[in-house]
Write a structure and sequence with these properties.
By secondary structure, the chain is α/β, with parallel strands linked by helices. It folds into two domains: 2-127, Rossmann fold (3-Layer(aba) Sandwich); 156-192. It has helices at residues 18-30, 51-61, 73-76, 81-93, 113-144, 156-159, 162-167, 172-179, 183-192, and strands at residues 2-9, 34-42, 67-70, 97-100. It has a four-stranded parallel beta sheet with strand order 2-1-3-4, sandwiched between helices. Strand 1, helix 1 and strand 2 (34-42) form a beta-alpha-beta unit. The chain is elongated. 20% of the residues are buried. The mean pLDDT is 86.
């Protein structure tokens, strides 16, 4: 089995990836696997633009290895539960397995693979629900303060100019540009007020 090792430390910490790598290499060799490549980074796990991480996914898509092996889930990603689970599901969709060194339950190579995937999917769903509830609560709090959300409406003064400009033969985009409103506003107005 070809293994991609991913090791990461945060730039805020004065650490190197070497401690992780020693153990990850030792396990890989003890299992008789081959190390395809070591992807190492000193960057926050909350960033989605990690260059080595992205390269690993590009290589995974091309099936250059069979397994991504990392120290722990928080070393793999700290972008939140939903995004982390999406990454793991993405690896699965490429036919690449994953394994955490310190979290024995987080292993898609073992007999509990289906259970792990199912559990991760459930956690992702719960996280999505929690996010939705937080957004709803935030909107209700803002509404309770009397703050109106959304784009401001188009004044009736501007809307009253639309039929005149339509009769001049201007297009919806031209009318929008002239009145400094979106052409979608013009289309919506025309749909409600057909001009004979």
């Amino acid at each position: 089995m070809k293994v991609a090792i991913y090791a990461r430390v945060s730039t805020k910490q004065h650490q190197t990836t070497e401690n992780q790598l020693l153990e990850l290499r030792r396990w890989t060799q003890a299992m008789g696997h081959t190390i395809y490549k070591e992807y190492q980074e000193q960057v926050s796990g909350g960033r989605s633009d990690r260059s080595e991480f992205k390269q690993m996914f590009t290589d995974a898509h091309q099936r250059k290895f069979d397994l991504v092996f990392f120290w722990s889930l928080d070393r793999f990603s700290r972008e939140g539960v939903s995004q982390t689970i999406l990454y793991l599901a993405q690896l699965e969709s490429y036919g690449v397995q994953f394994k955490s060194f310190t979290e024995q339950y987080l292993d898609s190579t073992g007999i509990f693979k289906e259970m792990i995937i199912s559990l991760l999917a459930t956690l992702a769903k719960q996280e999505k629900l929690r996010q939705s509830e937080r957004v709803k609560a935030g909107l209700e709090r803002v509404a309770a303060k009397g703050i109106k959300l959304g784009r401001p409406g188009v004044s009736s003064e501007l809307l009253n100019q639309i039929p005149l400009l339509v009769k001049e033969g201007l297009s919806d985009r031209a009318i929008g540009k002239k009145l400094e409103i979106s052409h979608q506003s013009v289309i919506r107005w025309k749909a409600k007020h057909p001009i004979s």
